[in-house]
Give the backbone structure.
Amino acid sequence: MTMPKEDTNTMRALQGLESSSSVRLQAALTLGTTPDPRFIDKLIERCAIEPDFYVRDMLTWALTRHSASMTVPKLIDELRSERAQARSQALHTLSKIGDRQAWPAITRALLTDADDEVARSAWRAAVVLVPEGEEPELAGVLVTQLGRGERETHLSLSRALIALGEVVMPTLRAAMTDLDPGVRQHAIATERLLRNPDAGFEFAIEEAKRVVALGTTSQEG
């Protein structure tokens, strides 16, 4: 008995996930174009080990094409993985799906994960999934990460805080007087960006450095 053409293409796509990066990209596209719940596990497994950014993004897209009721619980399970990429990519995919039933799984442990990529993915997911009224509590956790990592991590955190809006201001202002100059600088830069989004991150950082050097956190710098 011959398999229907669609099934043959799908099976070929599954095999393609183990091939070269261009073939893996096409395979992920195929599996998203003709979503089949039988292959959700395989897509999630591949996300955890896929080295190519573009293929990972296509795997995420393929997962968003499936029913959230089937993908979200499996992605939440992946957040407990010991593999950092598995946690990071699951968080990224949950942020793209946008199902707020995943919110309880965005724990403080993930928001403060030792791996920068996991933490950054958690911040992005959190601001998408946070229920109305819980933004101040989320802001309180996020500001504990001010000053962490290098430029890209700083920028990711600033963007997450800014996405929460004015609700972050009380905790941000408190951080602007922190004993750690790196925390103060990052808090000031974020506050400047919140007030003037067009200024750009580099300008805000340079202004924050000047403010910290002068020993003032006033609005005027």
Remarks:
- The first helix runs from residue 5 to 16.
